[in-house]
From TrEMBL:
The lineage of its organism: Bacteria, Bacillati, Actinomycetota, Actinomycetes, Micromonosporales. It is an enzyme of class 4 (lyase). One of its GO terms (molecular function) is pectate lyase activity. It catalyses: Eliminative cleavage of (1->4)-alpha-D-galacturonan to give oligosaccharides with 4-deoxy-alpha-D-galact-4-enuronosyl groups at their non-reducing ends. Its EC number is 4.2.2.2. InterPro entries: Pectate_lyase_PlyH/PlyE-like (IPR004898), Pectin_lyas_fold (IPR012334), Pectin_lyase_fold/virulence (IPR011050), TAT_signal (IPR006311). Keywords: Calcium, Lyase, Secreted, Signal. This is pectate lyase. It comes from Actinoplanes xinjiangensis. Pfam families: Pectate_lyase.
């Protein structure tokens, strides 16, 4: 709740408790305690957060976020030069709902700040944003493609405004301070989480609330309801961090990779059109999990927390998993935030690994010249840039894989301090809504890309293989060409299908 005056006043938490005690004695105290744990008084509210108890309900991706005081506690994104900073909360299965939040632009001179609905990836969402042009724009965002569904002028975007987005079926409607400003028809995925976003801007956010709409209302357990189960903030964060209602404590594996190693036969990889698996549980990861031998995750969702729960697009992050030479990781779901995904120190195999929202990179391969890496089955979503980063030497095979909403599937490092001759093999892969290219290699170091059986969905053309002149000085590599040449980019145009 916003305060008209910035001078010291009792916190919202304290005011609610005092009011409850004054109204009805001991019985009122119980009511007041529930009000503390569940910020919204509405029984139908799915989620609410005023940040008085921190921001433990949110996963971050990009930018510099912190809870600060501005009359009351607010969530501030302070990095105005961040291309896309966002935080997400709620359930991936939410369908028809209304999300609103109070938004104040601190620096909107070059960008925008707003609230998002149906976020199905780090850069796929509907959003209503205050812009540098002095408008509120209702947008459909899918990677680098931004479609304006409607807009209206807003006076003083630097003041607090309440932004609300209603999503119902394919209809999207935006409101500013209770007045309808835009509406349109969208074609994005029909479910997704809520978000707070900035792009080349800094802003503050407060008083977030989510309520159901119509017959298509979310059917998953309400995060707000789970807050009444315990009065401890830790329990609240654990309950709301789970993106689905299928979490059970008994299915969560122990922190020790040794305990989950198995000598069972390697499973058959999923096809590139297989349905995404439903998580059997969720496990926060506060420190990188080392893996040697085989780790079968049983389709548990692992997500970054604590030291690994920071900005999803920052360079130099630690991974959730670090695989030793020869290690196998299979049947694992990486949730958000995913930090720097998976690092392979030497040869490694990833079987049926799924990235719900790629952080910096899905996986980075760091082995020597004779290393072999295999990604077989699984899929990835929401990669602003690369999905797979090849920094070491050796050969990476990517097969039976699906990827959507991404920049590029593979990149041979163009400016690593130590360079190698690298090879990539891409087989039987389905790519949807790519923003950039399929693979990028360094011709001057002798890199090769062998590509077959690629299906591209949602685009009529795509740079399948891009050649660069790489370097070891850290400078941006130079693009020198695209397309098959029989030497570095080895494939037939007939091997690529566009749908």
């Amino acid at each position: 709740m916003r305060h008209a005056m910035p001078h010291a006043t009792p916190s919202r938490r304290r005011r609610r408790l005092v009011a409850g005690l004054g109204a009805a004695g001991a019985a009122g105290a119980v009511t007041a305690l529930v009000a503390v744990l569940v910020p919204s008084a509405s029984a139908s509210t799915l989620f609410s957060d005023d940040f008085e108890n921190g921001a433990g309900n949110w996963s971050k991706s990009g930018g510099t976020w912190s809870v600060v005081s501005d009359g009351s506690k607010v969530y501030r994104q302070a990095k105005a030069d961040s291309e896309l900073a966002r935080v997400f909360a709620g359930e991936t299965s939410w369908a028809d709902y209304s999300v609103e939040a109070k938004v104040k632009g601190l620096d909107l001179s070059k960008g925008l700040a707003g609230v998002a609905a149906r976020a199905s990836g780090s850069s796929t969402m509907y959003r209503l944003a205050l812009t540098s042009a002095g408008k509120a724009e209702l947008q459909s965002v899918k990677g680098s493609a931004v479609t304006v569904l409607g807009a209206a002028a807003v006076s003083d975007p630097a003041a607090w405004h309440t932004l609300k987005v209603d999503v119902s079926g394919s209809s999207v409607t935006g409101y500013v301070d209770g007045a309808k400003v835009a509406s349109g028809t969208g074609s994005l995925t029909g479910t997704g989480r809520i978000g707070l976003v900035t792009s080349f801007a800094s802003a503050e956010f407060d008083d977030v609330a989510v309520n159901p709409l119509g017959a298509g209302s979310p059917t998953t357990a309400s995060p707000t309801a789970t807050r009444t189960a315990s009065a401890t903030p830790t329990a609240t964060r654990t309950a709301t961090a789970t993106p689905t209602a299928t979490k059970t404590a008994t299915k969560t594996p122990t922190a020790s990779p040794t305990a989950t190693r198995t000598a069972t036969a390697t499973p058959t990889a999923t096809s590139p059109t297989a349905s995404w698996p439903t998580a059997t549980g969720s496990k926060p990861v506060t420190a990188t999990i080392p893996v040697s031998g085989t780790l079968d995750g049983g389709n548990v969702r692992y997500f970054g927390s604590g030291a690994l729960g920071g900005d999803g697009q920052d360079e130099g992050q630690d991974p959730l998993f670090k695989l030793a030479d020869g290690a196998v990781l299979k049947n694992v779901i990486l949730g958000a935030p995913a930090a720097d995904g998976i690092h392979c120190s030497g040869s490694c195999t990833l079987i049926n690994v799924w990235w719900e929202n790629v952080g910096e990179d899905a996986a980075t391969f760091k082995g020597g010249a004779s290393a072999t890496y295999t990604v077989d089955g699984g899929g990835a979503r929401g990669a602003d840039d690369k999905v797979f980063q090849h920094n070491g030497g050796g050969t990476l095979t990517i097969k039976n894989f699906q990827v959507e909403d991404f920049g590029k599937l593979y990149r041979s490092c163009g400016n690593c301090s130590t360079q190698h001759k690298r090879a990539v093999v891409v087989q039987n892969v389905v790519v949807t809504a790519p923003a950039g290219s399929l693979v990028g290699i360094n011709a001057n170091f002798g890199d090769t890309a062998r590509i077959s059986g690629v299906t591209v969905v949602g685009k009529k053309s795509l740079d399948i293989c891009v050649k660069f002149t790489g370097n070891s000085s850290g400078k941006e590599p130079t693009k020198i060409g695209t397309g098959p040449d029989g030497v570095n980019c080895i494939y037939n145009e007939s091997a690529i299908t566009f749908k």
